Amino acid sequence: MKVTWEEPAWQELAPAVGRTRLPVWDCTTGLVVGDGAALLVDTGSSLAEGAALRAAAGRLLGPAGRVTHIALTHPHFDHVFGTAAFAGAEVFAAVGMPALLAADREGLRADAVAQGLDPEAADEAADLLVLPHHQVSGEWTLDLGGGTRVLLANVGPGHTAHDLAVLVRGDAGSPEIVFCGDLVEESGEPQAGPDAVTSQWPAALDRLLALGGEDAVYVPGHGAAVDAAFVRAQRDALATRFGVS
């Protein structure tokens, strides 16, 4: 399926790969298009945001296309609360994330409200929260058809205990694209909340760099796309910040 990236908010990263930066929290969502299948990387901060993403993806994919797969990079509300808008999609996440989401709906809701999400929107998203159907403990390859293959890699812990990266293999002349989740942030200093595993975060970035290599385009969870040198510099800054090698 060929996509013309005509949605003004979407940036084309490669012929079958695009991303958009959502408002308010500047959260990145990615779209990878195959032949008859499409993968969305993260779903936004509310059902309304998820519905807007579904509509935008529908305009890009055309009447015969829809989002069939979702990869959730980590269990924070601004990356998972829109998932219920994508009925029928197969949802993937790092191993252990379904149990965490099931046990911590109230914590997610409270964090969303504390960060400024309307309480009613937070209640709705928490009540309808979709638990991932598939857990990635190592690596999982998805074949989206048309030669588009995506590697899901459990590279954490780091930003959380459940960090999933998404690697889209490049064709000849196209770079590999790595969706990093919040293991990497460009628009501000990486945020380390109470669920961060700071002692292992630099090692997670080492695994991320090994996954993508020197020539890949790395897409942070927040901010502009970056290169390997940026990821390496952030890795070293985190090691200094947290006192690990």
What does this structure look like?
The protein has 245 residues and is α/β, with parallel strands linked by helices. The protein has helices at residues 47-61, 77-80, 97-103, 105-114, 119-127, 201-212, 228-242; strands spanning 10-14, 17-21, 28-33, 38-41, 69-71, 90-94, 134-136, 139-143, 149-154, 164-168, 177-185, 217-222. The strands form two sheets. It has a seven-stranded mixed β-sheet, with no helix packed on it. Strands 8-9-10-11-12 form a five-stranded mixed β-sheet, with helices on one face. Strand 10 and strand 11 (177-185) form a beta hairpin. Helix 4 (105-114) packs antiparallel against helix 5 and helix 6 (201-212) packs antiparallel against helix 7 (228-242). The longest helix has 15 residues, at 47-61. The chain is globular, with a radius of gyration of 17 Å. The protein starts with 9 loop residues before the first strand and ends with a helix.
Question: Quick recap of the structure?
Answer:
This protein is an alpha/beta fold and 245 residues long. The chain is built from 7 helices and 12 strands.
Strand order of the largest sheet: 1-2-3-4-5-6-7
Q: What profile does the largest beta sheet have?
A: 7 strands, mixed
Mean pLDDT: 95
Structural class: alpha/beta
Percentage of residues in DSSP E strands: 25-35%
- Put simply, the count of helices is 7
Order of helices and strands, N to C?
EEEEHEHEHHHEEEEEHEH
Helix content: 25-40%
- Compute the gyration radius: what is it? 17 Å
| Total beta strand runs | 12
Shape: globular
The end-to-end distance, rounded to whole angstroms, is 45 Å
| Unreliable segments of 5+ consecutive residues | none
Question: From the structure provided, what is the oligomeric state, counting identical versus distinct chains?
Answer: single chain
